[in-house]
Amino acid sequence: xxxxxxxxxxxxxxxxxxxxxxxxxxxxxxxxxxxxxxxxxxxxxxxxxxxxxxxxxxxxxxxxxxxxxxxxxxxxxxxxxxxxxxxxxxxxxxxxxxxxxxxxxxxxxxxxxxxxxxxxxxxxxxxxxxxxxxxxxxxxxxxxxxxxxxxxxxxxxxxxxxxxxxxxxxxxxxxxxxxxxxxxxxxxxxxxxxxxxxxxxxxxxxxxxxxxxxxxxxxxxxxxxxxxxxxxxxxxxxxxxxxxxxxxxxxxxxxxxxxxxxxxxxxxxxxxxxxxxxxxxxxxxxxxxxxxxxxxxxxxxxxxxxxxxxxxxxxxxxxxxxxxxxxxxxxxxxxxxxxxxxxxxxxxxxxxxxxxxxxxxxxxxxxxxxxxxxxxxxxxxxxxxxxx
Length: 388
Ligand code: FEO
Known about the structure:
Blueprint: E1 6-8, E2 11-13, E3 18-19, E4 23-24, E5 29-31, E6 34-37, E7 41-44, H1 52-63, E8 70-72, H2 78-81, H3 84-90, E9 95-98, H4 100-110, E10 118-120, E11 126-128, E12 133-138, E13 148-152, E14 157-159, H5 177-189, H6 193-204, E15 210-212, H7 223-234, E16 240-247, H8 253-267, E17 272-276, H9 282-291, E18 292-302, E19 305-306, H10 308-319, E20 326-332, H11 339-346, E21 354-355, E22 360-362, H12 368-383
Parallel strand pairs: 7-8, 8-9, 9-10, 14-15, 16-17, 16-18, 18-20, 20-21, 20-22
Antiparallel strand pairs: 1-6, 2-5, 3-4, 6-7, 11-12, 12-13, 13-14, 18-19
Bound molecules: MU-OXO-diiron.
The site of MU-OXO-diiron (FEO) has 8 residues, from α2.
């Protein structure tokens, strides 16, 4: 970290298989915490309870004999609040700074009220640490209702709670911030785009040079780019022109159609991401469905409905407000194909979807007729351009 008087005291979790019980965390997860050193000392959030002792020893390493004055609790989800009681035992005179809603959650989680040690803050409230002043920003539903962010005017740092976070432990090299941040945003925060927008407006009024999230790396370079991505994601707009093909296949015939379509589209210069939904991280597929402007759904008719992995995928899309995209359909069925109808039904609450005219209906395996439909779908997908 390049910051002058802010120290990282977070931890890396390499034992985790599924973050929040469902998101694959192959590269682990970081629970970030920071110490702000000034005339007064503030600790920004705690960590998951399994790491309480490690976290406290990181804090002691930074502070030596000094004691912190404040624990600032921006978010009460247990990956951040889990070690609050350990902290209060180690530093019994500290004050806890949080929103009123967070204190209600502290009571629910831990049965504690903390009496006079409570400092309740709301949107726009400030706390002086000496040279610097912290300003609190209500970030309700990003992604719990009690969330506050914190701006440090001295070092121009935004402590952003879960926002701008990503999957991955900090001691694991990852390809890029964006793909894991996108998967994180779409999975965890995505549904609450309408709540993210007003927070971004508040952030726009600040001079933010560094973002310290509760997950993922500290963001110092190109902060404007990260904020712009959050604008796009929270507006439910596609990030770039391209096609996600999400398919399920039982005996390989629907897979063959999906891969042929992908090949044809790539030949024509399209960017294509392909997911076998039964064998992929469904949230990676969800993230790319939101990333690209076009989506093709290909599935088999199964028990008079659609194949379960497609059903789960469509559930996650609809749940997260999937909208403003172009969608094409491929169905397969050996005697009574109905998958296409059911896929549309599952998307009927999604706004602003444009369905392509060329639909593909396969009877067991591709034949001349369904192959012609598939090629027509490819042509139509190439003609579709994302709105600027
Ligand atoms: Fe990282 Fe919403 O907890």
